[in-house]
Amino acid sequence: MNAKQAHLNDTGAEVPQSEIDSRVDQLIRRTLDRNIPGLANLPQTESELEVGSSPKDLVYTEETARLYHYTPMSDEVYRVPILIVMSPVAKGYILDLAKGQSFVEYFLRRGHDVYMLDWLAPRANQKHLGFSHYALELVGNCVDKVAADSGEPDITLVGYCMGGILSACYTALHPEGPVKNLACFTTPINSEGMILHKRWVSSSNFDIDRLVNELGNIPSELINATMQALRPLQRNAGHLNLLNNVDNDEFVKAHLRFDRWAVDQLALPGEFARDWTNDFLRDNLFVQNKLELAGERVDFGNITVPFLHVAASFDHIIPEAASKDLINMVSSEDKEEIVVRGGHVSLVAGGNAMYRLWPKLDAWASERAE
Amino acid sequence: MTDEKDLDPLRLMRDWFVQSEKMWSDAMSEMMADERVAKTSGRFMQEALHTQRMFSESMGQYLSNMNMPSRTDILDLKDRVSQMEDSLNQVLVELRALRAEKATAEDDPAPRKKPARTRKAPKKSD
User: Fold this and answer.
1) In this predicted complex, what is the ipTM?
2) What is the distance of C-alpha A121 from the center of its chain?
3) Which residue range is the domain that position B91 belongs to?
């Protein structure tokens, strides 16, 4: 027996199959019409997705370090220049994504003199550059260069992620200056808070020496994979969210800029990776004040300058648990911690950062920049 | 009236995935943090390194016989190009320093004006 199922409308009247077919057809057409023209908004080339657009000059170059000075945007600037130290695995353009969405541009417009220490991927013959070399030589030389270029004896050091720990180590070993203020964003200090990475490298099967000896430098693909593994489906969700907003040109461009940066990691010198794995992830020396750089013990208690720490409550790369100890370790009387709602990247870029964090940072830095 | 977007089945599916992504990601991360997974991935990495070495050695020999560049040759070339970029950057840095010196010289007709470092922080309003 052929049972024919009747489709009834709200009033109980039967709806003919042809009308149902027509409605389904309309729905499919509307969905396609809405989404496909939106795809025209996708930038076709990388140049259409310009990043790092604030004008800048190259001031100093040494091995993997590039020191840039951004062209001031006001006739009168604060006396103390700001030096931003990026993470050696992240490109600096996240802080200068696009006009109107740039941390750097915001600070320039607010009257700060801004320098940035950005990094390049190491070449094969730079695999021997270790953590100590980065913290003492490369950061140190750039600090000196900023002082010489600006003509000021003081600087405000701002470190992002691993750049934060490099800045903190440098400041701890140079309490006499020239660092006048120190701000660290989401800075890894306690590896117990980085559960997944700690578990991986603590496994007896993980041989960092063999990895470094075989590869020389740790490729960016491997670094990217370890970052993505911390939240494996986030990027897929981001892509689906992009489709939901594909008719919004600004959303599409902002999303693609973020997405480009998120997978645009830098390779890390093998020796740096070895130091990071052994001294930080395995032995957790930072938080115990036991790290030694060039024969000198790094005691974060030596930091007495005004200190600001910024963490993000949903940061899955450097969770709050991995960074929260730093503020208690420094001896500064003038110290403050800001925990914002957001993730590792939205902490410094994006709407939340623009309207909440940047003004706070500007206020903090400008009060201490005269 | 029902929003047209609510009727889009693909959007509903995407919304569901976006909203539940963190839960799935957390579950996967928790699984990856397991000691057995850590051991397996460590072993996998050792094996991958060994395989890569064997493969690149044999392939390198093969490519050399064919008079073709290997990946190592290409990476060497990339390093050479990046060394040239470094040299150019050094020249740029020197040029900038020279320009700055010239700007401070008295006979410079168009000195590059530096902003005054006299800005004061706005007073806090109570």
Assistant:
1) 0.76
2) 16
3) 69-103
